[in-house]
Amino acid sequence: MAPRSARISLEWAKSLVGLSMKVPDYWWDGCKGYRLNDGVIDSYDIVEQKWNLLLNSRDDNDRYLMNYTAVSTYADSDSSTIDEYQLPFAAIYDGDDIIDANNGVRYFRTPPSEWSKVELEDGVSEGGRTIDPIEWTGEKEEPVNITDEEIESLKDSDGEIRYEKVFEWLLPRFGEDNNETLFDWQAARMRNYMRKKEVEDGWKPKYYQRR
Fold this sequence. Notes:
Number of strands: 6
Radius of gyration: 25 Å
Strand order of the largest sheet: 1-2-3-4
Distance between the termini: 55 Å
Mean pLDDT: 81
């Protein structure tokens, strides 16, 4: 007898019902447009192992089967309820709640009924643990060429200096007045290269739309 293929976790699959979607025209066979169609995951088809998409349209009451790749790709990331859904990189299959660490230890996922949600207090905009700065243990402190204004730009609303802002400040800058960030510079180089490929080689990227 041929081995049975893994089945998507039914509990997790049904938890995606109600997920808001924005699906482009080109997802449908024979369509090439880029208009986004609002919809919602209406139900889960156990036999097909796919989800039913219902569009928010009075003229279309059909259900369209979507695999998980399509569901996760076209989920409405701007929806106010997006954080209520578990959207991992790949679908969750039966047995995925058990992880073998290959060292004789097996880890089991806690049942969703026992999960707890971290509620932020009023006025608190960020969660997570606090990381204290590493104490300087060197013999000599080197001066940092930074202005008071730049120091202020590294702080958040609570006056704390944020690591990600320090990291960005350390990156090289470009332009006559150093007003072009590394990311802007890299994006400009990529645009130039893609334009060269289009003009000289006749190449166009997938899902490309000229405006």
